[in-house]
Amino acid sequence: MRCPNNKAGIIWYDNCLVKYSSTNFFGKIDYENRFYLYNVNNVSNPASFNTQTKALLTELTKKATAGGNQKLFATGEKSLGEKKLYGLVQCTRDLRSDSCKACLDGIIGELPNCCDGKEGGRVVGGSCNFRYEIYPFVKTA
Description:
The chain has a 5-stranded antiparallel β-sheet, with helices on one face. It has a single domain (27-133), classed as 2-Layer Sandwich (Killer Toxin P4, Chain A). The chain is globular, with a radius of gyration of 16 Å. Strand 4 and strand 5 form a beta hairpin. 26% of the residues lie in helices and 30% in strands. It is an alpha+beta fold. The chain is built from 3 helices and 7 strands.
């Protein structure tokens, strides 16, 4: 143990997180603390669905990190024929826009590990998170 006296913790709720550390974490991407949640139902065409999911989350990342978006947050939806795909991306507001993009790109890259072919999923981290579902779980803008 290099720093035995350091203390840290994160509590995740549905709509927020509380983070504490005895070391300065502001403006730094937390690559260590993350977990996966997914809908147990599978989609009928996983390859196409996974491509559409990644496209939606990538589009929302651009929206969340575009110049002037101080919230580092975006929601949206994508038509999948008769169904819709709903998505949300979010970063903690201590990150700069470029760090938020890097964080979201990193966790979106984990889609195959977490949620391959699932109707819904989340990667929740200490600095950023995403969620997607085939039902509306948040108001989209």
